[in-house]
Every structure is written in C-alpha cells, then in structure tokens.
Design the sequence.
C-alpha cells in the first residue's frame, strides 16, 4: 500500500478573505480569519463590552495625537490572519484603504474566549506586536505578554485586580485594573 | 485556572464562497479542492495515475455515449462545503454550463499518493452526497475498491476487485471494466 501524505490544508489568505468580505459573503456573521481558518467570534456579554468601553475611554484621550486607538476593528497581522482585537493601539496614519498591520499594543478582553485569546498570542507575537494584554474577566486580572517571537511571547506577567500597568510605549498612560474590571 | 471556554470551532468555507474565489481567479495557479470547508491541495499526478484515468475515460466515454456524461477531473458540487474534483464522474446527461453536477451514478478516484484521503474523507463526502457507487482505483495495490450503500457515516459495503477481476457500474451493468485494462 502506498503511504498517504499528511493532510495539509491550504490556509485561506487575508487578501482572499478580504475579497469575500467585500462581496458581502460574511455580512450576517461575526468572523475572524485566524491562521487561514474562518473562526466565529464569541458573543460579547456586558462585562466584556463594559471593559472595552472603559479601556477606550481611558486610552483614547490619553493617546490623542500620539497613537490611534481602534476598537473591535480588523488588524492585518499576517498573510493568513485578520483578527479583530478588542483594542488596538496603532501608529497614527491613514487606514482608509488598508487595515493597520502594526501596533504598539493589542488588547483582548476575554470572557468566554480566554482559550482562543491565549492562542491568538502566537499570532500577535509572530506579527511582531511588541505587547499584548489579555483582560481576563473571570479571574479579574490582566495578563501582560511581552518579547514577541516566532513561538509566541517569551514573558507573561499577571497584574492583579488591585494593580496597574502602563503600555511600554506610553509609560505615562497608567491603567488601573480595577477601573477596567469590577 | 477556570478554563470554561469552548474549543475554537471553525466556520467552514462554503461552496458558493469558494466558487466566487475561483471566479475571481484567486486559485488560478494552484490545484485545490474544497473538502469539508477546507482548502486542500491536490496531490501531483504521476504517470500511473494519469494513465489509469486515460484508460477509464477511453473505456467509459464511448460505452456511455447518450446515456450519461463522463466528467474527467472536474469539480463535483458534492455538499454545501465540499467541491472535490474526482478523477472520473459519471453523471446524468444534462446542461452543466452554469452549475457543476451534484448528482452522479458513479465517482471514481485513482489513488496513488492520495489513498488515505480517498478512503477516508472523500469516501465520507461522496456517501453523504448520496452518490450510490464509488470506486477507488488503487494503483499500488493493483485493484479496485468498490463502495456501495451510501449513508451519513460513509459507505456500508466495500468489495475489493483483484487485478484479474472485472466490475461494472451498478447503473450500467453492460459496461464491464477489467481491472487489468486500467492498471498494469
């Protein structure tokens, strides 16, 4: 019997996904492209949207003129991924024709999506995003990932509910965890 | 850690989405099939494979003229999320100018490097699509596997026809295929 080859899958590419989006193929769905696969996004509950609101309210004025704060918008990370992070702090610029592909900081708020957000850390690390935060709703803490590499982030620091943290790129912008999470 | 999260489910690419990308020329330089919502590269075809396809075509086409269409390495609209390109598909006569066929009397895959997938995933797809009969021409094993009795879990029966044997499609019992004529 002949040996079968391993069942390789050809990932859907970002430009292919973008064309389907432009054709309205996913108009009634909330999807992300992650490593070449279409992945439905978890529904967002009140603690999740509230955390995103608090983050936006804090970061937007603090970074005005220094960086753009995008919420739940596509981020063009790699050839085969286009996630929609809850918050992306990106360089100032014109993103009218292209999604941003670089960021100072990406933040995901994780309620039911914790497992996936931890998997996303590899995607953001491979894309060279220097800092990635997971706002961990069930455990009321913030996970700070730094030192991106091909396998993921080398360092992870847990900031407790009573603690605070600032983006490395903007050390003056201090985020108290208790302001984001109840 | 309270890991109450769901494992990431994947939303299969649908056939109509895949067809749009094909129409846009996205896969123009690739050999790809859509299998259960995934883009799967097709194995390169070696001489024994193409020779078997050619012999099957030469035998089936004239024998079925006016009774059925013989499609060779063409897309088959199997399911909502699958569009394989079987080596041979014997389908009802009709006009397939706008739509790929989605019904077949018989599907044949010639398996050289692709045996595991032809027996596994594709067997399941063709059975679920209700294709009544599926043959795998096993190049290395020098035999034909005949699958019948399609169901949701795959085909219920598999009969091996050896190199010295012969087999005819159930729908066309007069069209006898000698295995030794297809495979050396």
Sequence:
């Amino acid at each position: 019997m002949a040996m079968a080859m391993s069942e390789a899958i050809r990932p859907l590419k970002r430009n292919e996904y973008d064309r389907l989006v432009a054709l309205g193929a996913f108009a009634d769905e909330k999807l992300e492209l992650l490593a070449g696969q279409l992945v439905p996004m978890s529904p967002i509950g009140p603690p999740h949207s509230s955390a995103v609101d608090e983050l936006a309210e804090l970061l937007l004025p603090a970074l005005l003129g220094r960086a753009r704060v995008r919420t739940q918008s596509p981020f063009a990370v790699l050839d085969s991924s286009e996630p929609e992070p809850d918050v992306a702090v990106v360089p100032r610029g014109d993103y009218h024709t292209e999604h941003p592909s670089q960021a100072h900081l990406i933040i995901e708020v994780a309620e039911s999506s914790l497992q996936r957000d931890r998997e996303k850390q590899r995607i953001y690390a491979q894309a060279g995003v220097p800092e990635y935060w997971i706002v961990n709703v069930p455990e009321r803490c913030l996970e700070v990932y730094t030192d991106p590499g091909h396998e993921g982030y080398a360092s992870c620091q847990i900031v407790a509910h009573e603690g605070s943290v600032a983006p490395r790129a903007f050390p003056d912008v201090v985020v108290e965890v208790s302001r984001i999470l109840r | 850690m309270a890991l109450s999260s769901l494992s990431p489910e994947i939303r299969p690419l649908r056939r109509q989405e895949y067809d749009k990308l094909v129409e846009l020329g996205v896969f123009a330089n690739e050999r790809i099939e859509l299998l259960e919502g995934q883009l799967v590269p097709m194995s390169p075809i070696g001489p024994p494979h193409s020779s078997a396809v050619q012999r099957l075509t030469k035998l089936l086409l004239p024998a079925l003229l006016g009774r059925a269409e013989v499609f060779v390495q063409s897309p088959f609209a199997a399911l909502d999320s699958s569009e394989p390109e079987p080596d041979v598909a014997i389908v009802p006569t009709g006009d397939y100018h706008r739509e790929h066929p989605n019904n077949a009397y018989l599907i044949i895959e010639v398996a050289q490097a692709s045996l595991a997938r032809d027996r596994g995933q594709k067997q399941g797809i063709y059975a679920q699509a209700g294709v009544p009969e599926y043959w795998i021409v096993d190049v290395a094993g020098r035999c034909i596997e005949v699958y019948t009795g399609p169901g949701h879990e795959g085909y219920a029966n598999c009969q091996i026809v050896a190199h010295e044997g012969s087999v005819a499609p159930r729908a066309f019992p007069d069209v006898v295929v000698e295995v030794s004529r297809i495979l050396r």
Notes: The mean pLDDT of chain B is 92.
